[in-house]
């Protein structure tokens, strides 16, 4: 009578023979299990790669010149508008904090879009650079049509803008796709407000997976650019209903701001976010905070809030520009990883202002 081995026993004995043939010694069950588990995981990784992984080489074969195209258009825009570098950097920030980095901030009203993020409180008559994004998109479409998303254009334009302003460069991770909806209410609630407390701003960063170092580093984007009086004039005359200016404002700086932004003046007057080097990306922003010359309330609170974890980070960045640049580059990568659409999600818009077919 022939006794048949069960399939399980046959499989186990086969694996035992493989082990002993490779290693020329009897099997050790711990090593055996470890080896085959490792082989299984490696095979799984290569057979079923993650679709959610962004990559700096995403367009290497489909649009290899994308970075140089973006750089060329931004350089041209800077010749007539020194503010544009800061504006493009801000667009990427305001995009990623609403529905993730999906290009939703670029959508105009039309088709299924009934409310645009452009007219949300943090963006209305404030966010700018949309025409430059359109110019970048046109140039890219002429070179490699239907390939590069508007969300990735924002990420690339931010890196180029910082680099051209004298700041750090980094390998931008790419592969995002464009969202099909806008979220005006999300823009009103998720984007940090310049009059908010540090606790509220910290909570908004934490809600999208960003920590204290990210908060301080990304605030350093205020190293260049401008802000309208209406975003900080509550600090100049009647701070928090006290009838007096914000006590954390340097008195000399306060006098300058009161002259630029009188009580009954235009709330649209522009002021340099960094009075010492307004168009250069450097660590002077943090040195300004140490002397109580942060323009926005949310700027100064990073340093002037007693016991805040942000204070030591500000001190570090004020003393060490290299540390700031390294942290900023990493934090921009972290921010660019907020809930991207990948794979078959979303679409590649042919026009950044509207969903395809609308």
Automatic annotation (TrEMBL):
Query: Mind listing the UniProt keywords for this protein, alphabetically?
Result: Calcium, Disulfide bond, Glycoprotein, Heme, Hydrogen peroxide, Iron, Metal-binding, Oxidoreductase, Peroxidase, Secreted
Q: Which PROSITE patterns match?
A: PEROXIDASE_1 (PS00435), PEROXIDASE_4 (PS50873)
Recite the UniProt cofactor note for this protein. Answer: Binds 2 calcium ions per subunit.
Q: Which CDD domains does the record associate with it?
A: secretory_peroxidase
- Enzyme class, top EC level, equals oxidoreductase
**Bridged cysteine pairs (disulfide):** 63-144, 96-101, 150-352, 229-261
Q: Which GO terms describe its cellular component?
A: extracellular region; plant-type cell wall
- Active site residues of this protein: 94
In short, the EC number is 1.11.1.7
Main location, first listed in the record: secreted
Q: Which cofactors are reported in the record for this sequence?
A: Ca(2+); heme b
Q: Which InterPro entries match?
A: Haem_peroxidase, Haem_peroxidase_sf, Peroxidase_pln, Peroxidases_heam-ligand_BS, Secretory_peroxidase
Name the positions where Ca(2+) 2 binds.
274, 282
An example of a GO molecular function for this protein is: heme binding
The residues that the entry says bind substrate are: 192
- So what does this one do? Removal of H(2)O(2), oxidation of toxic reductants, biosynthesis and degradation of lignin, suberization, auxin catabolism, response to environmental stresses such as wounding, pathogen attack and oxidative stress. These functions might be dependent on each isozyme/isoform in each plant tissue.
Name the protein family.
Answer: Belongs to the peroxidase family. Classical plant (class III) peroxidase subfamily. Belongs to the peroxidase family. Ascorbate peroxidase subfamily.
Output this protein's name: Peroxidase
Q: Which species expresses this protein natively?
A: Glycine max
Name of encoding gene: LOC100783115
């Amino acid at each position: 009578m022939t006794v048949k081995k069960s399939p399980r026993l046959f499989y186990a004995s086969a694996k035992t023979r493989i082990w002993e043939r490779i290693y020329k010694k009897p099997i050790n069950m711990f090593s055996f299990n470890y080896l085959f588990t490792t082989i299984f995981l490696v095979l799984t990784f290569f057979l079923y790669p993650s679709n959610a992984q962004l990559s700096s080489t995403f367009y290497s074969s489909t649009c290899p010149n994308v970075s140089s195209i973006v750089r060329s258009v931004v350089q041209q825009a800077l010749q007539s508008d020194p503010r544009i570098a800061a504006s493009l950097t801000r667009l990427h920030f305001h995009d990623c904090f609403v529905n993730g980095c999906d290009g939703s901030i670029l959508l105009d009203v039309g088709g299924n879009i009934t409310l645009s993020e452009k007219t949300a409180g943090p963006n209305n008559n404030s966010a700018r650079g949309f025409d430059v994004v359109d110019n970048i998109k046109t140039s890219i479409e002429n070179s490699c049509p239907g390939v590069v998303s508007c969300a990735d254009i924002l990420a690339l334009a931010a890196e180029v803008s910082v680099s051209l302003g004298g700041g750090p460069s980094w390998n931008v991770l790419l592969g995002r796709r464009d969202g099909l909806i806008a979220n005006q209410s999300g823009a009103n609630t998720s984007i940090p407000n310049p009059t908010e407390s540090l606790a509220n701003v910290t909570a908004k960063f934490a809600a999208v997976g960003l920590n204290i170092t990210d908060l301080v580093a990304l605030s350093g984007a205020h190293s260049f650019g401008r802000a309208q009086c209406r975003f900080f004039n509550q600090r100049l005359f009647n701070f928090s209903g006290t009838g007096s200016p914000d006590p954390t404002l340097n008195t000399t700086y306060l006098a300058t701001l009161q002259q630029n932004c009188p009580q009954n003046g235009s709330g649209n007057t522009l002021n340099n976010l960094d009075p010492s080097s307004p168009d250069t990306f450097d660590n002077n922003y943090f040195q300004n905070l140490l002397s109580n010359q942060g323009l926005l309330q949310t700027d100064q609170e990073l340093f002037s809030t007693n016991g805040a974890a942000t204070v030591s980070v500000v001190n570090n960045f004020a003393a060490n520009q290299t540390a700031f640049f390294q942290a900023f580059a990493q934090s921009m990568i972290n921010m660019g990883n907020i809930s991207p659409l990948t794979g078959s999600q979303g679409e590649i818009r042919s026009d950044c202002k509207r969903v395809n077919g609308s």
